[in-house]
Design brief:
Layout: E1 29-36, E2 42-49, H1 58-75, E3 96-100, H2 111-122, E4 129-134, H3 135-139, H4 143-154, E5 158-162, H5 170-176, E6 181-184, H6 186-194, H7 196-211, E7 215-218, H8 224-232, E8 237-238, E9 247-248, H9 249-255
Parallel strand pairs: 2-3, 3-4, 4-5, 5-6, 6-7, 7-8
Antiparallel strand pairs: 1-2, 1-8, 1-9
């Protein structure tokens, strides 16, 4: 039998672990503008994937956050600005960039590291990035998610709540979590336009948001009456077809010049 001395014994190396590359081009992003209701000025944009793009897993989520911060850096000409505050949760003169996470996107265990890496990689101040979390994730969250939201706030990032189609549960979440923004579902905007009860319920949510130093953003605003109704409710910002459709990131960027 052939025997090998310890000097001759081949050393076994662990197999190399390769990370799956990010195959999505930054050009696949589209920008949906967001405007302040007080003066109509552009406040920022939500970056979304083009139609037909693959669903976001942990790798895709990291790519989206990184690409969004790179876009925001390009909006500022590559020179990070230090936004001031002129309304609860809003950054000016720098434009904010919003990334809305899918359901359960907060539970992959790497979100905090992804946010920190995206901000550092683009050289952006934390408040430039708004990370929007689904209401369903926050509604059934344990203490770990509360710690995660607080940790993202410690990085300087802004954390938003993406509401569902009803106001139920929003007030409890706003009281429990240290949020910067509540983003109101388009269905709430439509209901408030013609339903007095829905309008009163939404008004309570907006007032509470301001009471906890958060801003309110109306989503899916498609008409001047809807815009006026949201302004009457003291919403801070709005986005939707009335303010412009989503644009390829390069087109949105060119329009800033």
């Amino acid at each position: 039998m052939l025997s090998l001395s310890s000097a001759e014994t081949p050393k076994l190396r662990p197999p190399a672990v390769r990370r799956r590359p990010d195959l999505r081009p930054r050009a696949a992003l589209r920008a949906l503008p967001c405007h302040r209701l007080q003066d109509g000025a552009l406040a920022g944009a939500e970056l979304i994937q083009a139609e037909g793009a693959p669903a976001l897993d942990a790798v895709g989520q990291a790519w989206l956050l990184r690409a969004a911060c790179q876009e925001a850096s390009a909006w500022a000409g590559g020179v990070p600005c230090a936004p001031g505050l002129d309304a609860p949760g809003l950054s000016t003169p720098g434009l904010s960039v919003t990334v809305a996470l899918p359901r359960h996107g907060v539970r992959n265990g790497t979100l905090l590291a992804q946010v920190e890496a995206a901000l550092l990689g683009a050289g952006l101040p934390g408040q430039t990035l708004v990370v929007a979390l689904p209401q369903a994730d926050l509604a059934d969250a344990g203490p770990d998610l509360l710690l995660l939201v607080s940790a993202m706030r410690d990085l300087g990032a802004h954390v938003a709540l993406d509401s569902q189609e009803r106001t139920g549960g929003l007030e409890q979440i706003l009281r429990r979590f240290p949020l910067n923004t509540v983003r109101l579902h388009p269905a709430l905007v439509r209901q408030a336009e013609g339903d007095a009860d829905a309008r009163a319920a939404l008004s309570r949510v907006v007032r509470l948001a301001h009471a906890v130093d958060a801003s309110a953003v109306a989503l899916g605003v498609e008409s001047a009456p809807q815009r006026d109704a949201m302004a009457d409710l003291r919403c801070d910002m709005a986005q939707g077809r009335l303010f412009g459709r989503d644009l390829p990131g390069s087109v949105f960027r060119a329009g800033l010049g």
